[in-house]
Each structure stands twice: as structure tokens, then as C-alpha cells.
């Protein structure tokens, strides 16, 4: 499995133990999560008579940063609106087969996710693997889960609980974080919410699923999903063509410092979109603008595990190792399982050799060369 | 200690004299790809529906050149490079390069079979080397440099070494480093218009291989320069300068033909400027002064210089390695 992952990036993993233990739909022993969807964020029970289907939506976190910091009030409003919309889709949808329709109306699952987490960290100048980033990421997921449940309970009050509510763990007073042994912050507000759920039930058996957002993040102009940026400068290859993407936050920071020059652009290009070797950039910025290849994957997994306590389906967690060995991969995936993750998505790597750069000079800059003025950076 | 261009067939790998060549060999192995991974379906619909007559003329010329270009390089590898670069680790790299040249030939053959359904037209594409003046001129240029070492079976004298070095320099700097780079620019120009993704995908891989071939050739040249600096004198510099200028003229003439029907968005003047820019880069790699002082006019080539991110569900992702090493363990850093 590790070899195939290293050679192709494929081999999405579903850890079936945790996927079942921590699923709201599996309160009855005969209800089993057999597999995830392709992108590994949807975990729902299936049976001969039940085909799992799910409506998804993702919140662009990049648009929830205010002058004073992350805007949790706005996030709460967005979550409520999104859950109401996703819930409506369940009734308005076209179902091509009866088993999908039956299952969807019984369980009414939705999958609300996130994108642009990296954008939030850029805006607040937090290194991706810093303690403050980790705490903020966890708090965001807790808020999303809380307000999603709150909205679903309200929807249940308005239109009734989903028909199979009695078969869920929520009906027994168990929420996602209980399966992780985690106590949420501000337990008081959760107790109030549980009281609401006891009274009205929930309109939706599942609420949170963090999808990869590969295309919509591009359209919205934010970083994908819960991922660190792949590079400060890269090419997005799509069916409709290849597009150059530059990290606009970095460009803005460097402009402020008067460092966004053609030479700087070339230096970033030569370093394959990394700023780690560019001494002119202050250390604090270099730490914030590390790429996925330069971050410890352990931090990514830990962040995902923190968040996991508030994700009742799962997350499309990509992992990045430029030049993987089998030992590294087995250690990493074992750690992911031990931290209680339900699924992992692609492994991304880099090619062994690369294309000769055409638009920048790869030879070391010549300090000054009178014999060769055209090659001399100083004389241009 | 023996030198890289001393004649013979050295067999000693331990101690290894040039570990860098061995590393390059292993890097190349990790980049194995196959033609079957490339999907030409979208290209075909573009050729039929979205491309003008001028675009199609460009494509026909391009395919005609590609169909023969890599075979020429493979022949020279066997007839010259493999014979005279005397280190087993370097010959390992060359063996691998030979396989890659065959792969490229297969890629362009498959391309041709897909793009040109008509048998007679296919035959014409292969005959381009004789019939189409702009391609014949490039082929003659290559032929002349292959011929220059055809009777050189064993490097015996300083003059032999000079002959060989010019041949090596020509194939790295002019043929792989300029003719191919010219051809790649047309492909990426089309891609910038959203056309022919299959051709662009395969070309990405060919480009990656060609870059490695050039890096190897320059590594050989730098090694010889260290061992025998006297070979790289003013006479050598003058010969290389003339050779590269000639190659630029051949490729400019090819551009005049390729773009003769007027391809919107790509002018002959820009193409000339680009080729001059690339030629200057080659001269710098050879530690020689630049000739032209041109700047790169093609913004779309910048896309080649940055790492790619592909959605798995849209395209074949190429950023992977084969021959990954190690054993299962649970205590490695990650």
C-alpha cells in the first residue's frame, strides 16, 4: 500500500474502526459504514436498500477575517444559512434511484465543509504549524459544528426530526467529540444545545464533511480546503488549461517592504516557489510562507485530529512528502490512525528531476563581469 | 587517474570516479513514464473543431519535425557519446537516455498516428526531412555534426577531443537545447490558448527528460573542462559561437515556415527573440559570453518554470516517482 501511494499518490485510506465508532448513524449494531466516497470526506452507512448520498457546501474562511481578528459572529451566520440551504436541497433534489432517495430522506445528511484556512493564517500572520494556528483551527471547527447542530435542531423544531433520529447516537445524547474523548470549550452552551436536541431532535443525522474544494477554491480565489499552500508560485493544470498562481498575500507583504521586484520574483521562481532560502525576506515572513513541502506532516495530522472531534463525517486530508520513502510513509499513516483520523486522501510528491527553467537564469548570478556585461546582474 | 575522454572502455565502478553521473542515472529511473498514460481524445476534437488552417499547418510542421528529431539524437548518442565518454557510470546514464529517446520517438509516432489519420499524409510527415526545406535544413545541420565524428572510432589526439566536444556541445546546446526548445514553445503557445492538452502533457514529460539530457551533457563538458581546461580555448569558443548562431538561423527559418500562414498571437519576430534568448542561455551554460542580449518574450513559458498542481480527477498527475525505497517502519520522521 505504501509503495503504491508513493508511486501514484492513490490509495485513499478509510480507517474503518474509527469511521464506525465515531459515526452518528451507527448506534444500532447492524448499521455499518462500509467505505467512504472517493474524496474520503463522506462517511455514511450503506446497505442493500440504502445508497448513501450527500449534499455538500464549503465555507470560504478567507472571507471571515475582520480587522480585529477572526469573525466568529459572521461565521455563525454563514453556518446557519448554509445548513438551511443544504437541508432544502434534500427535498428539492432529483434522485435517480429509489435506494438513494429513501436513504437521503430517512437520514437527511449534509456535508458542510471549509476552505481557505491557509488564507486565514496568512491574513492573521500565523505560521501554519504554530500553536495559535492550531488553536484557531480547532475553535473554527468547533464553532461550525456547534452552529450546524443548533440550526439542525431549529429545523427539527420547525419541520420535525429526520425519521431515523431515534437510531442515532445524538438521540442518546452523544455528539462527535464524545467519540474522541474531547471536552468542548464552554461546555455550558453545549449542555443547552443537548437539551434542545433532546426536545426536538435533529433535522440531519450528519452535518460536517470537509471536501477537497479543488475547483471551487480556485473559483473563489482561496487556498483549498484545510490545506497549507502548495507553493508561493505554481501552475494549476486543469482541463481548460494551465494557469499561473502567485501567492497574493506574500506579494502584498513584500510590496509593503519594497521587496516585490523582478529579482525577487525570479528568486522565488528559481526556488520552485519557496522563500526559505531568500535571506532578504524577514524570518517571520519566511516561517509564515512555508509551503506544504516545508511543513512537518505531523503538525498537519495533529491539526486534523484536533478538528476531527467536531467533524461528524470526515475530512479530505492530503499529505505532502516531496521525496517519500516507504518507512516515512508507514510511520506517517500509522500516526494518522493512532491520532484517531477516520480517513486520509492523496499523498502528493514531487518528480525526481525537473524541467530546465526557461525564463530565469539558473547559473549563479555573476557579481560583476566587465567581459560579460549581459550576464552581469549589477550592470543591467 | 584516467580522464573522462581518455580512449577505451573503462569498467571500474568502485571506486566510482564520477558519482554525479550515477546520481543522474538514478534520478532518471525514478522519472519513468509511458506513452499509454497520455490521453489524446480532447486533442482530436480540438484539431477538428477549434483550430484554424494556420494552426493546423503549424501542427503538421511540428509533428513532422518531432517525428524524426529524437531518432537523430538517439543515433548520435550511439555513434558518438556512448563511444567516447569513458566512464561506466556515464554510460549507464547514456543507456537510460537512449531508452528515453525511444520513448519520445514512440510518443511522437503515437501523436502522428492520432493527429494524422491518413496513411499518405503520415508518410509525407516522415518524408518531411527530405521534402520540406525548413526541416531539411535543420536535419542537414544535425547530420553535418553527426558526420563530423562518424570516422572517429577512438580518441587519439587533442584534435579528436576537440571534434568530439563540438559534437557533444552541438547536440546539447543546438539540437536538444534549441531546436527542441523552439518546438516546445509552439506547444505551450497552443496550450496557453487552451488547445491540445494531450500534446502539452506528453511534452511536459519529454521536456523533463530533455532537461536532464542537457544537464548531463553540461556535466560532461564541465568535467572535461576541469580535467583538460586547455581544450576550451578561444578557438573552441569561436566555433561554438558560430555553431549556435547557425542553429538559431535554422530554427528561425523553420519558424518562418511554421508561422507562414499567420498564427494569431505568435509572431516570427517574437519567435526569433525567444530563440535568441534561449541561445544566450546555452552560451552562459557553456561559460561563454552571450551573443544576442534578447529577453524572453513569451509569458506563457513561465508556466514551465513553476511546480504544477493537477487535480487527479481532471488529468493524469505526473509528479510521482517510481523505484521508491525503504521498508515499513513506524518511527521515521515525517
Explained architecture:
The complex is a heterodimer of chains A (380) and B (334). Chain A is mainly alpha-helical. Chain A has 2 domains: 1-226 and 294-349, Anaerobic Ribonucleotide-triphosphate Reductase Large Chain (Alpha-Beta Barrel), CATH 3.20.70; 231-290 and 355-380, no CATH class. Chain A has 14 helices and 10 strands. Chain A has helices at 2-8, 16-21, 72-92, 98-107, 117-123, 131-159, 176-179, 187-200, 214-220, 248-256, 262-270, 283-288, 297-308, 326-338, and strands at 13-14, 55-60, 65-66, 69-70, 110-115, 233-238, 241-246, 319-320, 343-344, 347-348. In chain A, the strands form 5 sheets. In chain A, strands 1-9 form a two-stranded antiparallel sheet. Chain A has a two-stranded parallel ribbon with strand order 2-5. In chain A, strand 6 (233-238) and strand 7 (241-246) form a beta hairpin. The longest helix of chain A has 29 residues, at 131-159. With 334 residues, chain B is mainly α. In chain B, 65% of the residues lie in helices and 1% in strands. Chain B contains 10 helices and 1 strand. Chain B has helices at residues 19-30, 41-49, 53-84, 88-115, 119-131, 133-147, 158-192, 197-227, 234-258, 268-285; one strand at residues 307-310. Classes of the chains: A mainly alpha (380), B mainly alpha (334). The interface between A and B is large, with 63 and 64 residues. Strand 6 of chain A pairs parallel with strand 1 (307-310) of chain B.
In short:
Chain A has 380 residues and is mainly α.
* Poorly predicted regions of chain B: none
State the CATH topology of the largest domain in chain A: Anaerobic Ribonucleotide-triphosphate Reductase Large Chain
Any idea how many domains of chain A? 2
Main sheet: strands, sense, barrel of chain A? 2 strands, antiparallel
| Beta-strand fraction estimate of chain A | 5-15%
Mean pLDDT of chain A: 93
Tell me the fraction of residues in β-strands of chain B, as a range: under 5%
Quaternary form: heterodimer
Please, how many helices of chain A? Answer: 14
Helix coverage percent of chain B: 55-70%
Order of helices and strands of chain A: HEHEEEHHEHHHHHEEHHHHEHEE
CATH architecture tag of the largest domain in chain A = Alpha-Beta Barrel
Q: How confident is the prediction overall: mean pLDDT of chain B?
A: 93
Distance between the termini of chain A: 53 Å
Physical arrangement of strands within the biggest beta sheet of chain A: 1-9
Fraction of residues in helix of chain A? 40-55%
